[in-house]
Amino acid sequence: MRSEIRVQDTPFDPLAELAPVYAAGPSVGGVVSFVGLMRDMNQGDAVTAMTLEHYPGMTEKALTEIVDEAARRWQLDHVRLVHRVGEVRPQDPIVLVAVASAHRGEAFRACEYMIDFLKTRAPFWKREQTRDGQSRWVEARASDEQAAAAWKEGDRAARSGEE
Amino acid sequence: MIKVLYFASLRERLECAGESLDQVPADVAALQVELAARGLPWSEVFAPGQTVLVAVNQSMVGADSMLADGDEVGFFPPVTGG
Questions:
Q1: CA distances in angstroms from A92 to A31, A83, A119, listed in the order given
Q2: pLDDT tens across A14-47, in order?
Q3: What's phi and psi for A91, nearest 5 deg?
Q4: How far apart are CA A147 and CA A139, in angstroms?
Q5: A85-141: per-residue pLDDT in tens?
Q6: How far is CA A8 from CA A23, A94, A95, A112, B80, in A?
Q7: Longest pairwise C-alpha distance within chain B
Q8: Assembly ipTM
Q9: Are residues B7 and A53, on separate chains, in Cβ contact within 8 Å?
Q10: Which of A55, A94, A95, B72 sits a CA distance of 20 to 30 A from A39?
Q11: B82·A61 Cβ contact <8 A
Q12: Bridge partners, A100 (sequence order)
């Protein structure tokens, strides 16, 4: 399996990132991708900008572990994972997870698995600026932790017919 | 000697991004007790029951994780990427 993992402080173009995933080779039967965008609302407040901070070194290590685990669980041809740091504005892409596989089932599950674990295990933090001039750290969501925990309990593995 | 790093809201509350400690505590829990003993704001950030995540040598670990000379310890709040 080929993979590309990048953390960058400059904008990325999701469509340009997908092109090499589609072209991963003749054994690929499907591509599934998730692109996370910055929203202009959070907890009822208008948000004008966001700054993403990370733990350089650990971030790359955590993302590599997540990709390696997905490749161990499912048969994948290509994985591309790109994450922004620095300042982002509403509608800017923050994260892209793209998976090419022979079959759609593996591609769907691997993509969801990777974004679920990225959100709870990769050391990124968001600080948002609201329209009224406030700046605050975004709080972690319990629903994200539950989504990642469900993979361990086997809920989702069962859905894919695995043990 | 160990290197200790603080991230995001922890860095801001502690007004410290990182430091080196000459003495190596036995484990992460012992290090947290030592940091909490510094008084405010440390005692608040590292109070029992506070959700502080920890990584040793850039892998997330529990409080019972042992420490050794040369380790890098990172403390941070729950992550919010993606």
A1: 22, 11, 18
A2: 999 999 999 999 999 999 999 999 999 998 999 9
A3: 80, -10
A4: 16
A5: 999 999 999 999 999 999 999 999 999 999 999 999 999 999 999 999 999 999 999
A6: 23, 10, 10, 22, 17
A7: 37
A8: 0.95
A9: yes
A10: A55
A11: no
A12: A31, A78
